[in-house]
């Protein structure tokens, strides 16, 4: 009898719930404000920077904005792509590395430059997504047929 199925299902539900909570915090970031800046205002700034030719000269800004866009896609996409993540260990670990690097960078910036509640919600979003990805139990690959 296989007793791992209920455990696996519970683990996957907890992982999925953590990823959804990460999405909720990411969306909440857009409605919070700090120092006369609202989270949603980052998108017009990114759009303006990419439309100008100056972004290619400022490598740090290019790296930060590209990272934020990647973070957004991963955090919002993980709960939607749960079926693919469960079937592919490579995808799961690739997304885990991206969220870990994003979370680490945002937490580092929060610690070194001071943080507000808005910044903490942004930092918790990839952290919860990372935790959710770690909690997921991938399906084992199918067994190869024996030749004999």
Topology:
Elements: H1 4-31, E1 33-34, E2 37-38, H2 42-51, H3 59-77, H4 82-87, H5 89-113, H6 117-135
Antiparallel strand pairs: 1-2
Helix pairs in contact: 1-6, 3-5, 5-6
Task: Provide an overview of this structure.
This protein has 148 residues and is mainly α. The chain has one domain. It has helices spanning 4-31, 42-51, 59-77, 82-87, 89-113, 117-135, and strands spanning 33-34, 37-38. It has a two-stranded antiparallel sheet with strand order 1-2. Strand 1 and strand 2 form a beta hairpin. Helix 1 runs antiparallel to helix 6, helix 3 (59-77) crosses helix 5 and helix 5 packs antiparallel against helix 6 (117-135).
Structure in a nutshell:
The chain has six helices and two strands, in the order H-E-E-H-H-H-H-H. With 148 residues, it is an all-alpha fold.
Strand order across the largest sheet: 1-2
Radius of gyration: 19 Å
Distance between the termini: 29 Å
Average pLDDT across residues?
87
| Helix and strand pattern | HEEHHHHH
Weakly predicted, low-confidence segments:
none
What spatial form do the alpha-carbon principal axes imply? globular
Proportion of β residues?
under 5%
Largest sheet: 2 strands, antiparallel
């Amino acid at each position: 009898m296989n007793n791992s199925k209920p455990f696996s299902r519970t683990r996957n539900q907890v992982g999925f719930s953590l990823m959804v909570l990460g999405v909720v915090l990411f969306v909440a970031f857009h409605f919070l404000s700090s120092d006369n800046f609202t989270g949603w205002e980052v998108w017009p700034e990114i759009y303006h920077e990419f439309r100008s030719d100056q972004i290619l000269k400022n490598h740090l800004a290019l790296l930060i904005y590209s990272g934020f866009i990647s973070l957004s896609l991963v955090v919002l996409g993980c709960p939607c792509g749960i079926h693919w993540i469960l079937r592919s260990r490579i995808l799961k670990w690739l997304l885990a590395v991206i969220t870990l690097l994003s979370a680490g960078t945002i937490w580092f910036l929060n610690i070194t430059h001071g943080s507000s509640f808005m910044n903490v919600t942004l930092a918790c979003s990839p952290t919860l997504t990372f935790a959710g990805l770690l909690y997921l139990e991938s399906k084992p690959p199918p067994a190869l047929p024996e030749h004999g």
